Amino acid sequence: MSVPLLLGTDYTDVNVPNICGPKGYIRLLNGCRVPILRRGETVAYARAEEPQSGAASEADTRVRLAHEVILPPRSRGYVPVQTSFQGNGVITQRHRVYERHRVHVATGTMDSTANQTSWVEVTHTGNTSKRLPKGMFMGHMSAYSGTVAAISREDWAALSPSPTTAPDATDPVEEPHVHNSNVPKGLRPQVLALLEKHRALWSGHSGSIKATEHRIELKPGFKPVRLNPYRMGPQTRELINAQVDRMLKLEVIEPSQSEWASSVVLIPKPDGSPRFCIDYRQLNERTVRDSYLLPRMDAWLDSLGDAQFFSTLDCDAGYWQIPLAEEDKPKTAFTCHCGTYQCTRLPFVLCNAPATFQRAIDMILSGVKWQNVLFYLNDLIIFPADAESHLSLLDTVLTLLGKHAVTLKAQKRHLFTNEVE
User: How far apart are CA 49 and CA 87, in angstroms?
Assistant: First the structure.
């Protein structure tokens, strides 16, 4: 056999009478012995030509990235590579690439032109984004005497775009789920027209609420606090690096030279995945508290009355839609192994963050508050008595939110449902 494989029990029970681990082979029914591939070992994927005079050195057969790429988590795609190898060859992975970065380079034949860009398939099995630098050593090329069918680099790139390619701006925008069973047939076209009218609210981009900005007022006599980063292992640093890259792309943080510095911690979510948090306890102790009150949940429930159906909306990363006052951005600085950054949008763990966000939504929806519309931080619920007024009020609420650049999350939001969680 010339390729590695994984054997399932349904196959081995029938066809594999003997697996000899100490001697490193599997014996099939026909007497054929197949070597066991262990970690760090390689097998021959194709028969290489015998070395000739003037053959390429090992350095000449190395395959390296042509430029820096960023691989999304759990993704598969193609990356540009270059090699000094000339002619038909077989590319084999450098095992360290997978062991250190969880990136698998697909083995295959290639008609290689020395120092010209080609494309190879990679699979990233990690849970966070991975940045691979230009010139990274990905694998080796070896000569191949068989026939290689090749297409042009342009056709290859067109058929198999790089994993770093951004999604097309014309891709359909995910819309909130509509329970048609509760909508009168005569209103269903109007509901669809309403969703199309406010399509920008579900664009997937973080908004910037114009109603207010967050300020941080310090108690008298307190001086800036600068904390050292916590010690973290390689895997934790990788997770933090991916989150910092994401926030930089979303423009919710920026590089900082502030005299303030808080530390970064990873807190496990209920599902076990890590949550990126900034330890603002020292800053919160020095901050004057905002006395703006949040709504009482019992008052919420009493207001629902005899409502028959509801529409629920949820702001997309709501706090990140609130801008920070320019003079207060340095107070939010945090430090980690990636460097020092400060927030440009409202962080989740500041003590006055809930009050600021609730105040902003109150200001935006002040004309309809308690008029069959309730909202608590990120969550809004609309509950008029009949379908016609429900549609009209929903249009009013979405118009007000859009006017102040609020964006909403389509997932798990429902329109015209008869129950809410």
Answer: 12
